[in-house]
Amino acid sequence: MEEKYFEISTENLKKFIDGIITDNYEVIAPTDKDGDTFYGKINKFEETNLDILLPKMSYKEYLLPKTETLFEYSISGVDTEVKDGLQNIAGANEKRVIFGGRPCDAGAGPIMEKVFNWDYKDEFFNERFKNLTIISIACEKPDNYCFCTEMQLSPESSYGSDILLKKSGDKYFAIVTGEKGLNLVKAYSNLFTETAKDKVPADKDWKKIFEVEKTKSFLDKNFEHNYFQERFLSCIGCGVCTYTCPTCHCFDIQDEGNLKEGRRIRNWDSCQFGIFTLHTSGHNPRVTQGDRYRQRLMHKFKIYSEKFDKYLCVGCGRCSRNCPEDIDIKEVAKNLAEMA
Ligand code: SF4
Ligand code: SF4
After folding, report:
1. Which of 64, 166, 173, 213 has the smallest C-beta neighbourhood within 10 Å, fewest atoms?
2. 95 pLDDT higher than 90
3. Nearest ligand to the C-alpha of residue 245?
4. Number of the ligand 1 atom closest to the C-alpha atom of 270
C-alpha cells in the first residue's frame, strides 16, 4: 500500500486512544512505574508519558516474552495430556496497539521478524507480531546516546510503524504505512483529516557521526584485535545491555517437571554471561568479557548484516544509557569505524 497522510489534533489524539481502549483494544504505551518509565498497559490516555525520549526497556517482551511456556504436560495413570503453549496466545492480542514508541523501537520489529522466520518459522513470535499495530511518534530531540541515523533509520523514520505521528504545533501529521494502520484510521475517521504528502513537514537533515559500513569493515578484518580485550575489561557481564536491547533475541530452553507434570519454557538469555557458551567439557570458546562483547559487536554490525542486509541494531542507545560501566556502543562503533 502507498503511504497515506492525515492530520489529527492533540485533543483528537487523546479521544482516539481513549476510543480504541473503550473498543477493547489493549494499548501498551510508555507509562510511569516505580519512579521510571516502562511500556505497559494503559487504561486511559492520561496514563501515558509521552515526554520522555524512550522507556527504560523496549517493547521486545510483547514479541518475545522474558519467559513463556512452549508446552506443558500432565500424566494421570496411563493418560498423558500435552498442551501446546501456542494455544495460550492463538487469537489473543488481536487488538493490541503499541502507542507512543519511537522509530528505533518500531524498526526493531522487522529486524527480529527476519531472525524468527529464517530457517525455522517461530509461530509464537509470528502470532504476536502479526497482531500488533504500532503507532509511533517521531523524535524531536534525540540525546547523545542515540544513533539511529547511523543505523539506516532516522528520528523521523516510519520503517516498522503502521502509523508514524509527527508533532507540529498543537496537531500531529499521521503517516500511515499499511492496511493495519489505515483500518484503525478509517474506524475513527471523524478524528482524522486526510492531507497531501507535501503538507507533511520534511524530515530534518540528521547528521551521522560515523559510517556503520566502516565499523563492519573493521570487524571483517580484526577478530583478534587488542581493542576488544582492553576496552571491555571494565564490563562486568551483567547482561543489562542485551536485556534492554530491542533487537537482542538470544534465548535458552529449559525443561521443568516431574513424573506427574511439567513444562518446557523459553527464557531470555544473554551472550554477555560467562556460561552462555560454556561447553559440557568445561571448555569455553569465549573466555573473557572482551571475547563476549566482541561477539555482541560482531553479531550487530557484521554477522546479521551479511545474512539479512540490515544491521542488528537500531541505534536506540538503551544499552549505553543502562550500562553500569558506562560502555557506550555508539562510541565503540565510531572508534571501530575510525580504526578501519
Ligand atoms: S551492560 Fe555494560 S557491564 Fe553489563 S554486560 Fe553490557 S556492556 Fe557489560
Ligand atoms: S545494541 Fe544498543 S543501541 Fe543497538 S539496538 Fe541494542 S540497545 Fe539499542
Report:
1. 213
2. no
3. 2
4. 5
